[in-house]
């Protein structure tokens, strides 16, 4: 990462403003963007320096829709519980849920993408690199990032749909090919078929449109924010926080000895 020269201050190119206008980069917010550019287009240009192609836009939108919701997962439960405790701060509930976008839930496309990068960079030796990775994880008895799911078996329908979309749009490239190599070796190491989950497919399809691994989790954060707002909206209509609290309390708290029948 480059550092500013001594005596100079770092500068941002993301936004500047005058008394009459606000600019996102070189774009006039009012004159160029409002009512003309989509949220995804502006996000991609602000983050990566250029607006997406039509194919890239469809991939990004598909990824964002895929990651938005997956039921009462830790992020949704955390959001609902914090909102029940702090209903005056919608953002507190959302922030609590977003803390769960990490290495165990939702955010596993980041380490998965790193593995696909390694396999892709190996070129003709990609299959051997995939085999090395799969055997290494197997020896350590660890799940390979992007593989396995407690519910979706033998295949994750979201992963199949995302990879099919990449083929349809012509963005299916070296990372998707690397995922196929890794999947074959993961199955071989396990002696059975292991599901490619949604984040594994997301790592591949985002990688093939040029998204670096270290920014991929940002798509999960962006998408799940919308999903958590939806959970809060439902919580406002039909509160569940007290129910969740009581359910856990009754399941995990043993009766006091004095309350036991003599």
From TrEMBL:
UniProt-listed InterPro entries: Citrate_synth-like_lrg_a-sub, Citrate_synth-like_sm_a-sub, Citrate_synthase, Citrate_synthase_sf
UniProt xrefs under CDD domains: CCL_ACL-C (cd06100)
Enzyme Commission number(s) from the entry: 2.3.3.16
Pathway connected to this protein: Carbohydrate metabolism; tricarboxylic acid cycle; isocitrate from oxaloacetate: step 1/2
UniProt key word Transferase: yes
One matching Pfam family: Citrate_synt
Listed transmembrane segments: none
Entry GO terms, CC: cytosol
Alphabetic keyword roster: Acyltransferase, Transferase
Gene Ontology MF terms in the entry: citrate synthase activity
GO biological process terms, semicolon-separated: carbohydrate metabolic process; tricarboxylic acid cycle
Family: Belongs to the citrate synthase family.
Name of the protein: citrate synthase (unknown stereospecificity)
Organism listed in the record: Cupriavidus necator (Alcaligenes eutrophus)
């Amino acid at each position: 990462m480059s550092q500013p020269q001594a005596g100079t201050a770092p500068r941002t190119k993301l936004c500047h403003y005058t008394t009459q206008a606000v600019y996102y980069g070189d774009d006039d917010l009012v004159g160029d963007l409002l009512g003309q550019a989509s949220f995804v287009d502006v996000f991609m240009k602000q983050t990566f320096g250029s607006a997406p192609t039509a194919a890239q836009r469809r991939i990004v939108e598909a990824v964002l829709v895929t990651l938005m919701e997956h039921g009462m997962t830790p992020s949704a439960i955390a959001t609902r519980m914090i909102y029940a405790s702090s209903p005056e701060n919608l953002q507190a509930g959302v922030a609590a849920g977003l803390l769960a976008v990490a290495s165990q839930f939702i955010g596993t496309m980041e380490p998965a993408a790193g593995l696909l990068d390694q396999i892709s960079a190996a070129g003709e030796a990609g299959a051997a690199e995939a085999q090395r990775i799969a055997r290494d994880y197997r020896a350590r008895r660890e799940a390979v990032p992007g593989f396995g799911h407690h519910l979706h078996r033998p295949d994750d329908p979201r992963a199949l749909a995302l990879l099919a979309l990449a083929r349809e749009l012509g963005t299916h490239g070296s990372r998707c090919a690397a995922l196929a190599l890794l999947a074959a070796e993961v199955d071989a190491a396990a002696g059975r078929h292991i599901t490619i989950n949604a984040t594994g497919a997301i790592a591949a399809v985002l990688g093939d449109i040029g998204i670096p691994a270290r920014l991929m989790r940002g798509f999960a954060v962006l998408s799940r924010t919308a999903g958590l707002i939806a959970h809060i909206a439902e919580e406002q209509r039909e509160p569940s926080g007290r129910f969740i609290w009581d359910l856990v309390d009754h399941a995990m708290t043993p009766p006091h000895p004095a309350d036991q029948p003599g």
